[in-house]
Task: inverse folding
């Protein structure tokens, strides 16, 4: 049966039974990926069945590894830069039973990368939603799971978002205005509101009153801090100035030492003309301690002569022939000359092999 690769964006619920957090306001430690049965999205419906649950659990066991979170499914694209395929986090899969005893798929044991965790907990968050990548059969039944992405454009509608309203109020939202308060109360009173909408409205109201209490405490703390004396402030400023002056002096001392070491290195190398140019160049790049150690362990040499310095040939090239005169005579060879070399009648001044001709041998 043919399989179809799918990428379905879902909203991570902020509270309730569909998401778990270590503490309020933190990025999720677990959340539901698929509900049992149909999961509706923009283009078609995806089905998570008991067969799907068994296939995915067997698949996870066979693979024996964690699944990744990535960014907008970039890690499974073939035409993207390598750095774009980095992980946003890691997770495992688990099957849990809903209220009716049917199987749901959950992401559990989530480990978010540092920047992604901060982005999910920011106000407003950098990402609110997730999107699993998976395969389905011709009937839309989930048959294989690849990984999950954090994203900003979900396909499903009317679901709670990742942002934690209570945490937002505690980290900067002072209070709701009159219009927002009335809207939240109207949502709670309306029979047409969904349970998720009512939960969000109730959380917003609770966050509002918590924030009001928090602001009062902050005002008291500000008054206590304002009573700090000018003398204490001046003392802190003096400490900072002294610290800055110490750092500046240390930097100047380092620069001066570096210049002195460079000068001493140059002088030490110049005092050793016996060093080869390659060695001298290498030493010029080394620390002064290395230069001193190398020079102390390397004995001084002398320049190698480029001509004969002793014997008959030290003053002219003719001495070279005199040196081999006895050897030439023993081998039956004559001195070389600028004339032609041949076999036959001897020619004066030609170094040649003394070989008899056929006529000579017959005679």
Result:
């Amino acid at each position: 049966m043919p399989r179809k690769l799918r990428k379905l964006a879902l909203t991570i619920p902020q509270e309730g039974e569909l998401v778990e957090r270590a503490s309020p306001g933190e990025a999720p430690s677990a959340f539901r990926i698929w509900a049992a049965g149909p999961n509706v999205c923009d283009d078609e419906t995806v089905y998570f069945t008991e067969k799907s649950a068994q296939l995915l659990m067997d698949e996870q066991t066979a693979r024996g590894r964690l699944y990744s979170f990535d960014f907008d499914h970039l890690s499974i694209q073939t035409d993207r830069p390598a750095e774009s395929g980095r992980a946003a986090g890691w997770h495992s899969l688990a099957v849990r039973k809903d209220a009716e005893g049917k199987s749901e798929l959950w992401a559990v044991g989530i480990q978010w990368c540092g920047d992604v965790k901060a982005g999910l907990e920011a106000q407003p968050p950098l990402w609110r939603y997730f999107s699993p990548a998976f395969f389905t059969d011709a009937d839309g039944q989930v048959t294989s799971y690849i990984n999950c992405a954090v994203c900003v454009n979900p396909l499903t509608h009317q679901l709670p978002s990742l942002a934690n309203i209570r945490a937002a109020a505690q980290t900067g939202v002072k209070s709701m205005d009159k219009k927002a308060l009335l809207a939240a109360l109207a949502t709670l009173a309306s029979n047409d509101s969904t349970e998720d909408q009512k939960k969000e409205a109730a959380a917003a109201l609770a966050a509002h009153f918590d924030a009001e209490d928090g602001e009062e405490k902050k005002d008291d703390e500000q008054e206590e801090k304002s009573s700090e004396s000018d003398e204490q402030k001046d003392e802190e400023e003096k400490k900072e100035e002294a610290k800055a002056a110490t750092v500046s002096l240390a930097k100047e001392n380092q620069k001066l030492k570096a210049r002195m070491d460079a000068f001493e290195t140059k002088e030490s190398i110049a005092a050793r003309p016996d060093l080869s140019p390659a060695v001298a160049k290498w030493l010029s790049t080394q620390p002064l301690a290395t230069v001193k150690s190398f020079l102390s362990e390397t004995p001084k040499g002398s320049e190698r002569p480029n001509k004969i310095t002793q014997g008959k040939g030290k003053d002219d090239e003719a001495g070279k022939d005199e040196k081999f005169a006895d050897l030439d005579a023993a081998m039956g060879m004559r001195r070389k000359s600028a004339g032609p070399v041949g076999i036959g009648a001897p020619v004066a001044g030609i170094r040649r092999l003394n070989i008899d001709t056929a006529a000579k041998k017959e005679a």
